[in-house]
Amino acid sequence: MRYHHDRMYPARGQYIRVLPPRHRIVVYGGSSYYFYDGAWYRPSGPNFMIVAPPIGLVVPFLPPYYTTVWVGRVPYYYANEVYYTHRGDGYVIVAPPKEEASQAPPPADEMFVYPRQGQSEKQQADDRFACHRWAVSQTGFDPTQPPGAASQTQKRKDRADYQRAMGACLDGRGYTVK
Question: Rounded to the nearest 10 degrees, what angle do helices 121-139 and 152-172 cross at?
Answer without folding.
Answer: 130
